[in-house]
Fold these 2 entries.
Entry 1:
Amino acid sequence: MNLSRELNTEKMYTIPLYIQIADRFISQIESGDLPPGTQLAPERVLSSELNVNRMTLRRALQVLESQGLLERKHGIGNFISYAKIDRHMETIFRFSSGMARRGFSPGTKLISVKIIKSDFKLAKDFGAEKSVKVYDIIRVRSINQEPVMIEHYNIPVFRFPKLLTYDLENRSIYEIFETEFGVKITNTRQSLEPIVANTFEAELLKIFRGDPLMLEKRLSYDCEHQPIEYGMDRYRGDRFRFITETSQISIESAW
């Protein structure tokens, strides 16, 4: 085999200029030279300083925006976004207390509350042989008055009678479980998948239709391993990142 011939015929690629510019901004963000909340100079000034045309600059800024590092405010300018919030998957997530510990002011807006009949799969998840009545609850959670997550709960009525008599807007649902019913969530089975916002979700979260979201599906259990809650939460992709930790690494064949 003629190795030198292979190397000579290998294609060499040049990193596009807009990617180089985006990487330069990212380095400045990570080093702290461009802290969160910083307003960038106008595009005409930046393009002149970087010696590039406006189209190249805008493509670079689009890269930053797609990664949640830049926020465009129409008629005002471009601002460096605040750091994403770490969502650790190994722990049961309590929004209000978790956000308060990070220095944010958490908020809740109740969107919809009703009682519906479950489908067969959900009934099976709750250990029932046929359709059961469940609470269907949708709330929007915010930090510093900015909506960042949609919570969607399905909760079996037979486990939590009269749940709707409690303040579901100003109290944690998990706290209501513990305080009013003596039921504590001890473990969950959850999955993550990337999705894009539909019109309804975009309106609730004050983002654009098609913006990235992370969908967390969750089945929660009490100390007796009885299922008590099915959740379908949608997190804004520009405000959260999801972290897992392992104590032992195992290599598993994909084939």
Note: The longest helix spans residues 17-31.
Entry 2:
Amino acid sequence: MELDPVFLSRIQFAFVITFHIIFPAFTIGIAAWLATIEGARLFTGNELYRRVFDLWLKVFAVSFGMGVVTGIVMAFQFGTNWGVLAEKAGSIQGPLLGYEAFTAFMLEATFFGVMLLGRQRVSPRFYFFACCMVSLGTMFSSFWILANNSWMQVPLGHSIVDGKIIPADWWEITTGAIMQVRWPHMLLAAFLTTGMCVAATGAWYALRNIHRSEARMMLHWGLGLVAILIPIQLYYGHLTGLYVLEHQPAKFAAIEARWETEQPASEVLFAIPDEKEQRNLFAIVVPGLGSFIASGNWTSKEIGLDAFPAEDRPPVLIPFFGFRLMVGMGLIMLGIAWFGNVLRWSGRLENSRWFLWATFLSFPTGFIATVMGWYTAEVGRQPWVVYGLLRTKDAVTPSLTGGEVAVSLTGYVVVYLVCISFGIYYIYHLLREGPSEAVQGIPGTTGNRPLAYADSSDSATGRQGGEES
């Protein structure tokens, strides 16, 4: 049987981006979290913040490294598997990826070393500044990636010359109406992912009755952050749905599993879409709700998949379930965060073991929601790689064979499973061990006076000897 290079390339890209998006979603939030608690430590002088900071700095370092590696592989595929896409849209996508390197990576690479190695070498204010710059760098990185992806979802600010897509308005490409919705939506997803992980870690320590001060801080700060951000995220999710309805109506119909145009339109809460027969099995439906969600009234006409040629329809199964899983995870986060704050205000949070277990077990909700959101967006965009301009089947490298993709895909799977398994295992052990006492700097030690350490040790030994004698 001949292997299809287009299908295998799509599987390979989906595999790589699934692993990659997990780490940026985590590190963007951790970087902001580190900057926040370092600012709190600088302002208050409380060593509790230092101990929590040092723990999450180690986690950030490991996650950041895995995110960079998987990101390089993902970008590498544009040239190997998607040569026609690179040729036709490279004048837009190339600069956007280059801007990420010049801005985001520059900030991260410059100041990340200060965060890891420079606490005793720079002033506390400059160290806090470095933390802020690393956080800003991670956000810049997400900005350029989302600008690239948003342009592929809804192409704006371009013109076509000799069959190639070239930029006509960079401002529209990078800060257009779609980008103003999708970038905040991604940032909020990253903050929520980290907030749930921080709260879950605090719950884990509380259940084990260890690191009680740190557990209390992480629980309170994590649940408080999520409680504030999740309603904002739900609002931006609604705005995202409105842009999909306007600019990608076929995707919207697939998300709703709406096979036929309806007026008024019902809302399918749950079903098993049957794409072959174009119907929903075991459907749970609310009449009229689909019209209200889409258009704000109960009688509007909503477009179904029957309004589009068969070759222009996206798959239904993944967008339908992906969207519902994403929303479901959001509702779990909402319930955990709000109920947790009720318990916190009543003084019962640390003693409610059932709720601590619920918080601990909810740690993957942010990751699942983020991955499912990307699946919904990317699969729902099909059959287009650049919506309305370039079909996925026409974007693959012409000389690519199915066997070549199968070999590279196998290699990616093996390497990723080994490397990422070790990375996740190491992060688990870092979190299981928990915070340690902050390492105190030795007065007078600098790069020009390395023997100050020996002086300090001798003095300490002398003091101990004097005390013993």
Note: Confidence is low (pLDDT under 50) at residues 439-469.
